[in-house]
Automatic annotation (TrEMBL):
Transmembrane segments: none
Family: Belongs to the glycosyltransferase 34 family.
PANTHER family: ALPHA-1,6-MANNOSYLTRANSFERASE MNN11-RELATED
A GO term, aspect molecular function: alpha-1,6-mannosyltransferase activity
GO cellular component: a single term: mannan polymerase complex
Top-rank taxon: Eukaryota
InterPro entries linked to this entry: Glyco_trans_34 (IPR008630), Nucleotide-diphossugar_trans (IPR029044)
Record-given protein name: Glycosyltransferase family 34 protein
A GO BP entry: protein N-linked glycosylation
Naturally occurring in which organism (per UniProt): Thermothelomyces thermophilus (strain ATCC 42464 / BCRC 31852 / DSM 1799)
Pfam families: Glyco_transf_34 (PF05637)
Amino acid sequence: MHFALPPRKTSRPPPYLPRTSRLPGLRKTRAKLFALAGLVFLTFIYLLTRSDSGWHAVPSPRVPKGDPPVVLVTVLDASRYNGAYLETVKRNRLQYAEKHGYKTLLAKIGDYDLGGSPFSWARVVAMLDALTKFPDARYIWFLDASGFIMNPNIKIEDDIMQPAKLDEMMKRDLPVVPPDSIIKTFSHLKGQDVDLVLTQDKEGLTSSSVILRNGEWARFFLQTWFGPLYRSYAFQKAETHALEHIVQWHPTILSRLAIVDQRVLNSYVKGKQEELYRDGDFVIGFPDCADSGPEACESQSRPFVQAWQNAFAST
């Protein structure tokens, strides 16, 4: 019996003949891809615009409108200053703010829960409070109760925070904590990039007069400063030494900091020559007067009360 053998595969395949149906198939495939891409795009637009879809675009940072231009913040501590002195401080702040269309936040120590931290930390919470109550303010200026505004003609937004002014005034490549801190202010920083303005005295950074540009960075900075770790640490000068720490070890904060001459923002009634108040200076401070008792600040400031009142009356 004989069986038919299957045909052998030739080693010479037949010549390639193009399939006439390939081009229409390719066109169909491309058409399907375009249709799918269009469907994905329309679905994305639909989800983006539907109010109830649960999809939310990432919001742009909120830009304050500058209304008011400045909020002047002072914390009043009746345990450290007598009543007559605090009333004078209030009048000083209110008259200055009224002249320039600013707002004030005159807080009391008892207004805030500091979680057992020293009362001096209230200045940080008060600035956070100002950001919440005045979301469209352009600047927050904290001025400690141990000082008076002496020159009512100086405006924060024009005479200090205006970028060209800051370019002239800021101290570049300066040790943050004098005299020989290895951490220095940025040498290439421009006025338009500054969000925090401070001064130094002979001991280091001061937190008794601070200007902060409102924005997301300002809230980040204040929340960092008020962090529980820093409040729990036994810094000798509480919030002031905490401020020095975060400025030196957080480049994100140092990169927005300008240090200006003390007499620009925070002259002293006594101290080194470069610290001393002169006629025409913006502010006069009575550092540590409250440490000598509730009556001491009133006593030290008395010679200057009539001077600032006369200056305000003449403008």
